[in-house]
């Protein structure tokens, strides 16, 4: 796990990001327009079945999402556009209108959106993991809430160009909650966000992560692209390292920032206005939590199997805490 804990990479990463910013600035308006015209022409000529419905591709702002995500490389942008439409065809239910589960997730800050950007103009998303109530809000609803939030915020060209920062606060996230993490849904999230969405995640910060989250991350790591792995930072309980990356004045009090406590209601109402939804008052579910049976497999092994057996929907992080911790210690040796 040392590759996540070291912070020597920061200078190298910042230098690379500055080079990318310089590269983007070198693109003239004419260059961007030529790339847009090229992508539009490629879409018009394409016979790919994933692009059977090209109606949305008539929207220049929509096409720009893919150009920014692939630094205005027309061919790579087109390939991402095809992957996006193919994934939407295969998982149309993910983009269905927001339901009670999605609104419940947003009300719990899963995700939340900070009102202010960071110094590089990046949109900052928050995930308060300990707020998750699996019996009231399935993991799939959390994924849909994240996906629909990204879709909504990508309407802003600044988010297309500058990308996103994600902060996941694992403080007080319990082993019992981790047992409800469905490996199939986690795999869907990775496949979608990493390969099919026109979005640029510039950094992903984990705060207060327990050992069982680190175990799961160790298993997920081989399935992540090298660039994604490099952008994951584990801060543990050391908020000062988070503050080295993000300014205090934009962070809420929960993250040691100078702002007030995060109010999830602000983004929830903004989201509902954009989707023409009249949100009913969100109340905590009274449904009792059903005990999860203990199985022999480790939580980390569940995710590994989900990647090897893609069509099996029954995997989740059920496991024995003592044996899982032993596995983590073995990994660290």
From TrEMBL:
InterPro entries: CRAL-TRIO_dom, CRAL-TRIO_dom_sf, CRAL/TRIO_N_dom, CRAL/TRIO_N_dom_sf. Residues 102-263 form the CRAL-TRIO domain. It comes from the Eukaryota. Residues 319-333 have a biased composition (Basic and acidic residues). One of its GO terms (cellular component) is membrane. GO terms for molecular function: phosphatidylinositol bisphosphate binding. Residues 310-333 are annotated as: Disordered. Gene3D superfamilies: Alpha-tocopherol transfer (1.20.5.1200), CRAL-TRIO lipid binding domain (3.40.525.10), N-terminal domain of phosphatidylinositol transfer protein sec14p (1.10.8.20). PANTHER family: ALPHA-TOCOPHEROL TRANSFER PROTEIN-RELATED (PTHR10174), CLAVESIN-2-LIKE PROTEIN (PTHR10174:SF231). This is CRAL-TRIO domain-containing protein.
């Amino acid at each position: 796990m040392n590759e996540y804990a070291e912070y020597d990479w920061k200078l190298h990463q910042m230098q690379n990001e500055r080079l990318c910013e310089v590269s983007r600035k070198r693109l003239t308006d004419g260059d961007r327009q030529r790339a847009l015209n090229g992508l539009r022409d490629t879409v018009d000529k394409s016979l790919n079945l994933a692009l059977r419905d090209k109606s949305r591709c008539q929207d220049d702002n929509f096409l720009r999402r893919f150009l920014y995500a692939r630094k205005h490389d027309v061919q790579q942008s087109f390939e991402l556009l095809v992957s996006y439409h193919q994934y939407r065809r295969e998982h149309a239910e993910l983009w269905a209108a927001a339901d009670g589960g999605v609104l419940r997730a947003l009300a719990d800050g899963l995700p939340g959106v900070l009102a202010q950007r960071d110094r590089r103009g990046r949109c900052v998303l928050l995930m308060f993991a300990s707020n998750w109530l699996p019996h009231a809000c399935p993991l799939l609803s959390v994924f849909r809430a994240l996906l629909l939030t990204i879709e909504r915020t990508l309407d802003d060209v600044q988010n297309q160009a500058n990308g996103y920062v994600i902060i996941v606060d694992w403080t007080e996230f319990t082993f019992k909650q981790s047992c409800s993490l469905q490996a199939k849904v986690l795999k869907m999230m990775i496949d979608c966000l990493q390969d099919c969405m026109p979005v640029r995640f510039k950094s992903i910060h984990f705060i207060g992560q327990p050992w069982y989250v680190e175990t799961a991350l160790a298993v997920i790591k081989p399935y992540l692209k090298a660039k994604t792995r490099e952008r994951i930072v584990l801060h543990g309980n050391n908020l000062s390292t988070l503050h080295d990356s993000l300014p205090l004045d934009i962070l809420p009090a929960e993250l040691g920032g100078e702002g007030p406590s995060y109010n999830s209601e602000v983004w929830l109402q903004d989201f509902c206005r954009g989707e023409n939804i009249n949100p009913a008052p969100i109340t905590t579910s009274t449904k009792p939590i059903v005990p999860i049976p203990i199985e022999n497999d480790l939580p980390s092994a569940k995710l590994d199997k989900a990647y090897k057996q893609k069509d099996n929907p029954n995997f989740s992080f059920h496991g024995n805490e003592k044996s899982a911790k032993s596995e983590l210690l073995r990994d660290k040796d």
